[in-house]
Design a protein that fits this description.
3-stranded parallel beta sheet; 5-stranded parallel beta sheet; alpha-(1->6)-fucosyltransferase activity; 2 domains; membrane; transmembrane helix; alpha/beta; transmembrane; single chain
Length: 608
């Protein structure tokens, strides 16, 4: 049985507990002699007394404070810490970027600031639908990122040339940005953008307001459209509106674009409208006969978009053709085109010519009579009953040939005459008869009234003499002598040298206030010719411009209708129009449309 430890009772009420660091053993227990051997020869001799050591003394505070462990400094750069910090920052930035993009793609609007320049306009986040014309990115009702174009109904119509060019540039950027969000590549020319949302669809989904405020009073003027007579008609499903601009003095390029865009609109099933409220030549009906009335009403003005080309209601002009025409023409060629690009352009322009070219009733009657007189003259006034009629179209003024040796001047008249002689010889099938070249009736149309005085062209008939561009010499000869010596007479204004845009813009202006001490008014910093174009022209000025347009069109109509062959320089747009007015097989392709400008090798269409 094991012994038990008996703890005697104590009279103290409390027990004192010694600290654990204090050794409670008696001092005698640490007697070094107690552990030593009794003798050196004793059998119990060992080395335990050497290995044994007394327990340590009770712990006491150190005389010198223990050295603390150094805490790391977070601001001190170490390679490992810098790597971790860089990784954390990059991860935080990427995560924030993804979150922001996710939020903006669901409910944000990206667009352009109203006053950003066309060169460096940048997209930015918008708080609401813009109150100015601009394309922008917006999520549809299904949360998919789309883009559309917002044009407030109170915006002036039609847009200016600069506004249309700016809008086209912005549409391209917005379309590219939207495709980047879906990791799509750039669109091929003429392809439809699947992410574009038309205005009507955007209004149906509530993404665009149906009413922004009061409608604009400037709603444009459509040629041949009688608003009162068209009440009750349905709105056109698809349309194209061609804007006749007021900053283009030339008529040929505008007319070629008008015909070509009409051909494109017809192929796409669009109703075609012509807007002429700012045309430099006045109303469309001042130069041509009225257009046939369409069978549907024009759409709302804010539904007519200059971009993209797939818009349901498209508006185009000469200034925006460089953006809209390549898209439309590429789409046309994929569906209806041939391997001959020039023929495709000709077909489109010919379609517009057949449908739109109609002169005033009086001008049309005169042209038909003039053509018949020329054909009769070719029979009666020449020895050969089969004398050909060769038309000559000579453009001078501010239009120079593309041929290098004549690029700063004009093609000589004798080159036109030689080409006309070759055409006459080819008409009979041989070069000469009895040592003399074949005769031909030459019909001349030119913007320079002095061309008729050239030795090689003095026998040529003018295409029409109903409206003629007079020279200063002819006007001086017809002027009556003045009754008062000191009476001021305006200097004669002639068209020597041809048609220049500066002369056109100065029609109807007076020069009596051009003296050095004449009042100059407010300094605007805008060139004088630009100010004159910006100012509203007088009624007499618009009448003079309309006369010039009518004379130009009658010249072309007579030459195209009477001539067996036409000699011209394709650098002039009138020459290209004559190629359209002739038949393709017998004219351009058959060799009866003769180009004397070697800078071009064949017929060309519009310039964009």
């Amino acid at each position: 049985m094991s012994n038990t430890l008996q703890v005697p009772g104590t009279t103290h009420a409390k027990v004192i507990v010694a600290p654990p660091a204090i050794n409670l053993r008696r001092a005698a227990a640490y007697n070094a002699q107690d552990r030593g051997p009794l003798s050196s020869s004793s059998a119990t001799f060992n080395f335990n007394h050497l290995l044994f050591s007394p327990p340590p003394s009770p712990g006491l505070p150190a005389l010198v404070p223990r050295r603390k462990r150094r805490v790391s400094n977070p601001l001190k750069a170490r390679p490992s810490r810098l790597a971790r910090l860089t990784f954390y920052l990059i991860s935080l930035f990427i995560g924030g970027y993804l979150v922001v993009n996710a939020i903006r793609s669901r409910g944000g609007i990206d667009g352009f600031w109203r006053y950003s320049s066309n060169e460096d306009n940048q997209m930015m986040g918008l708080d609401s639908i813009p109150r100015y014309p601009t394309p922008f990115i917006v999520p549809d009702i299904q949360g998919q990122t789309r883009w559309t174009v917002s044009i407030p109904p109170d915006t002036k119509f039609p847009p200016s040339s600069q506004e249309m060019m700016t809008m086209n540039s912005q549409c391209q950027k917005v379309s590219a940005r939207t495709r980047e969000m879906y990791h799509k590549g750039p669109l091929a020319t003429g392809s439809s953008d699947e992410f574009f949302l038309d205005v009507e669809e955007a209004e149906t989904q509530g993404l665009l307001r149906t009413h922004h405020g009061k409608l604009s009073k400037e709603t444009g003027r459509f040629a041949g459209v009688d608003t009162a007579a068209m009440k009750g008609m349905s709105i056109c499903k698809k349309s194209m509106t061609f804007v006749l601009e007021g900053d283009d003095a030339g008529l040929g390029n505008t007319l070629m674009m008008l015909w070509t865009f009409y051909g494109l609109a017809k192929k796409e099933g669009r109703t075609f409208f012509v807007e002429d409220s700012r045309w430099a030549y006045g109303k469309y009906s001042d130069v041509f006969d009225n257009l046939p009335s369409p069978k549907c009403q024009p759409p709302a003005r804010h539904h007519m978009l200059p971009c993209p080309s797939q818009a349901r209601h498209l508006i185009v002009s000469s200034s925006s053709a460089q953006d809209s025409f390549p898209e439309l023409f590429a789409k046309y060629r994929r569906t209806f085109g041939t391997s001959d690009e020039a023929r495709d352009l000709w077909d489109l322009a010919r379609s517009g010519y057949d449908s739109l070219f109609a002169l005033h009733a009086d001008d049309s009657d005169y042209v038909e009579t003039r053509i018949q007189d020329m054909k009769n003259k070719a029979i009666t006034d020449f020895t050969s009953p089969n004398t050909p009629i060769v038309g000559l179209h000579i453009r001078r003024g501010d239009r120079h040939p593309k041929e290098y040796q004549y690029k700063d001047t004009y093609i000589p008249a004798d080159i036109f005459h030689q080409s006309a002689q070759k055409a006459a010889n080819a008409h009979f099938g041989d070069a000469e008869t009895q040592g003399k070249p074949h005769e031909a009736l030459l019909v001349l149309a030119s913007d320079d009234p002095t061309v008729h005085e050239e030795p090689d062209l003095q026998r040529a008939m003018v295409a029409q003499d109903r409206i003629k561009l007079a020279s200063k010499t002819s006007m001086t000869q017809t002027r009556q002598p003045v009754a008062f010596i000191h009476k001021f007479i305006e200097e004669a204004f002639g068209w020597e040298g041809g048609f220049f845009a500066t002369l056109f813009w100065n029609l109807g202006t007076e020069s009596k206030n051009n003296a050095a001490n004449a009042p100059k008014g407010v300094e605007t910093g805008i060139p004088e010719d630009v100010l004159r174009r910006m100012a509203s022209p007088s009624d007499s000025t618009m009448q003079l411009r309309a006369f010039i347009g009518r004379a130009y069109m009658m010249d072309l109509a007579v030459i195209a209708g009477a001539s067996d062959s036409i000699v011209c320089a394709v650098s002039a747009m009138g020459c290209r129009l004559l190629g359209v007015m002739m038949d393709w097989e017998s004219g351009v392709k058959g060799g009866h449309w003769i180009n004397v400008d070697q800078g071009y090798q064949s017929w060309q269409g519009i310039d964009w």
